[in-house]
User: What shape does this take?
Amino acid sequence: LVTDIPGSTGASFGQEIVCYENPRPAVGIHRFIFVLFRQLGRQTVYPPGWR
Assistant: This one.
């Protein structure tokens, strides 16, 4: 989960809240969903308590 990504750059310039973890188990079909929201300004985002 990455927040505060400047519009003229890439995700590496944002604030990483939750790091990426590989799917478990590592076999079978997996679906990935990427959701992008526009922020009107910087926000304080807290990581979820569970995954």
Q: What stands out?
A: Strands lie at 2-3, 15-16. Residues 1-44 form one domain. The first strand starts at residue 2 and ends at 3. The mean pLDDT is 84.
